[in-house]
Amino acid sequence: MRTRRDLDRQMYLIEKRAAARKKRRRIRTLRLSFLLLFLLLVIVGVLRFAGHFSHTYTERTGDKIDALRPPMEVELLTVNPYSRPGTATEKIRGIVVHYTANPGSTALENRNYFENLKDTHETRVSSNFVVGIEGEIVQCVPTWEVAYASNERNIDTVSIECCHPDETGQFTDATYRSVVELCAWLCLKFDLDEEDVIRHYDVTGKECPRYFVENEDAWENFRADVKEALAKDLDY
Length: 236
Fold this sequence. Notes:
The chain is an alpha/beta fold. About 50% of the residues lie in helices and about 10% in strands. It has a six-stranded mixed beta sheet with strand order 1-4-3-5-2-6, with helices on both faces. It is elongated and about 110 Å long.
């Protein structure tokens, strides 16, 4: 016959085994959770790594992007071999600033020059945007299509042609403000920063945009202004 002591010991052993099983289950659950978390982090890392080196065009969209888009006229060129070939861009990795080298001309006049190339066949040239002397912005080519502006970087950059009043190539205050705002918005749209804003000169060595090539300090100040404008956009 079992004594009270035997029964107590048996209950103790049962409870001990039950507690041990419960502990093992908790450990297995914890290990499984850590494993799943690790796998999730690995997957996210792989996707980010793949996205960084992907050649596929992507852009940020949404209400915030739309709200921060600078005022602009969309006057897209006719698809043609001389100014809008219709070629798809790859992942956008830079924004290239140019000057028109045509003092006193307007944004629309430069846009129309690009458009007329389909008839004149004079050369192959264009840009995604033109910013005028009064600060007006005209979009000529979608950002997901190649513009003929930056040679070998046409495929992965967005180009901005800037009007200027005289041969120095210096922008008016209105042009300057619009280009800063446009560059900041494009940086936000394509997950870039001010270091990704470059001159045509930095691609080919061409004296373009002239004022920013001849005045390196002015160029660094411009990029600092883009950085400041981008920070404000990110905080919006």
